[in-house]
Amino acid sequence: MSEVSQDMQIWVDADACPAVIRDILVRAAERVQVALILVANQPIATPPSRLIRSVRVGAGFDVADQYIIGQVAPGDLVITADIPLAAAVVERGAQALSPRGEPFTAETVRERLSLRDFMAELRDSGVQTGGPAPLSARDRQAFANQLDRLLAARR
Questions:
Q1: Does pTM surpass 0.70?
Q2: How far apart are CA 102 and CA 84, in angstroms?
Q3: Partners of 34 in the beta sheet?
Q4: Residue 71 to residues 30, 78, 99, 123, 138: CA-CA distances in angstroms?
Q5: Per-residue pLDDT in tens (0 to 9) along the chain, 155 residues
Q6: What phi and psi values does residue 127 have, to the nearest 5 degrees?
Q7: Helices marked H in the chain — which ranges?
């Protein structure tokens, strides 16, 4: 077995991460020998592996996010749909990727924060905005492709 990559860890905001995305991440972590840490406020089952672990944090608003922000290092990758978390980790020099395969950059995360705030204002004023569409096969493929690109660039 090859050596575990020490230059990067993959952090997952696992409370809302779809199981199919976690499965893709597990296979990728094993394939490229990179640490994968699933952070949630509930128990998350992980396969037996020296590369993969879960961290259970206390219940509460943004507790998992704050844990990830406190642990992430430049060069790490964070998987999250949470835009404020993505903004914080990008600011710390890490990369962020949504479960739909959308990379967050300093530029795009600002745009997404503005849109998120606008939608929150609409909801607060009583407008029904709906939620995100269910994760599609196309979304899963986009995620897997973007993850492969990011991991290949690290080698």
A1: yes
A2: 15
A3: 5
A4: 21, 11, 20, 33, 31
A5: 444 445 899 999 998 899 999 999 999 999 999 999 999 999 999 999 999 999 999 998 889 999 999 999 999 999 999 889 999 999 999 999 999 999 999 887 777 766 666 566 766 777 776 666 788 999 999 999 999 999 998 76
A6: -75, 130
A7: 19-32, 63-71, 83-91, 106-124, 137-154
